[in-house]
Specification:
The chain contains eleven helices and five strands. The protein is of the alpha/beta class. It binds adenosine-5'-triphosphate and magnesium ion (MG). The site of magnesium ion has 3 residues, from loops.
Length: about 270
């Protein structure tokens, strides 16, 4: 990110560190020196960069890249998918959305449906919700006993480690809004005929459980931010800044992979195209 160009590492949660979301400001935009208009211009540049890196990942056919998005309702997962990945080649990028599990999914272990959607070589996959629901909504609504969900943090760490060892890079983003911002966004959805389709009355029930969700997120993030699959708590009240943080963190990671276009397995000088 330009204008100060500080690393997004300040939003990364170090392994084992306790997380207190109250202490992390959802209005922060301190890593970018400019305003909203400049932020949006900057995102266009990042879109171009990401497009190039994704092309490289696709051409290489070596590595797998997984982006996990989690947030409270209205937190902006859809907005991130739309704005951060604008312009990338749809052939190499896929979104997997995880809703209330079906009967078949429930008949399997909770990671079964997740593993099926993990990225293949050359692919970027974005998880819109994820296996983390199994320690979030499942915990808050007591859908399984505590002894069952409380084992899952270690299971998730082991699962993500296995994916990583097999060539997957994993980044996880919690889009952090506050309760007032959610109120404003829900009211906007209620009042704007073009946003109303997104309004879900059930979101109001979940909103009443805000504090329980905060506790569940804090524990999940703290216990599953690892060297191999870090969590970023992204200030997300300002949508333009949220997009910059996610885009920059993904770009930094992709650049760090030091990818290269594959060498030809023939001598181009000797191949004649008639
Ligand atoms: P989103 O709210 O993510 O933008 P949406 O509004 O299109 O998506 P919803 O019907 O709200 O769709 O689907 C997501 C719902 O599925 C959420 O309420 C979420 O908590 C629930 N869900 C996801 N995974 C699980 C799970 N493993 N167990 C129970 N509920 C789950
Ligand atoms: Mg919803």
């Amino acid at each position: 990110m330009k204008k100060n160009d500080k690393s997004m590492d300040k939003y990364r949660i170090l392994p084992g560190k306790p997380v207190d979301l109250k202490k992390l400001d959802p209005n922060d935009s301190s890593n970018f020196g400019g305003d909203k208009k400049e932020g949006k211009e900057e995102l266009l540049k990042l879109n171009k960069k990401l497009e190039g890196l994704q092309e490289l990942l696709y051409a290489e056919q070596k590595r797998k890249f997984l982006v996990v998005l989690q947030a409270m309702d209205t937190g902006g997962k859809d907005g991130v998918i739309r704005h951060v990945f604008e312009g990338v080649n749809p052939q190499g990028v896929r979104v997997a959305s995880f809703k209330t599990p079906t009967a078949i999914e429930l008949a399997h272990d909770y990671l079964w449906r997740i593993h099926q959607q993990a990225p293949a070589r050359g692919e970027i996959v974005i998880f819109n919700r994820s296996h983390y629901e199994d320690v979030l909504v499942v915990r808050v609504h007591e859908l399984v006993p505590r002894e069952v969900w409380s084992r899952r943090y270690d299971q998730i760490n082991a699962f993500e480690k296995q994916l990583t060892e097999e060539g997957t890079t994993i980044l996880k983003f919690f889009l952090h809004i506050d309760k007032d911002e959610q109120k404003a966004r829900l009211e906007a959805r209620r009042d704007d005929p073009e946003k109303r389709w997104k309004f879900n009355v059930d979101d109001l029930k979940e909103r009443k459980l805000w504090d329980e969700y905060v506790r569940a997120y804090e524990e999940a993030i703290s216990r599953t931010s690892t060297e191999w699959a870090p969590w970023y708590v992204v200030p997300a009240n300002k949508k333009w800044y949220r997009n910059l943080v996610v885009a920059s963190a993904i770009i930094d990671k992709l650049e760090g992979l030091k990818m290269a276009f594959p060498e030809a397995d023939f001598d181009p000088k000797k191949v004649k195209v008639d």
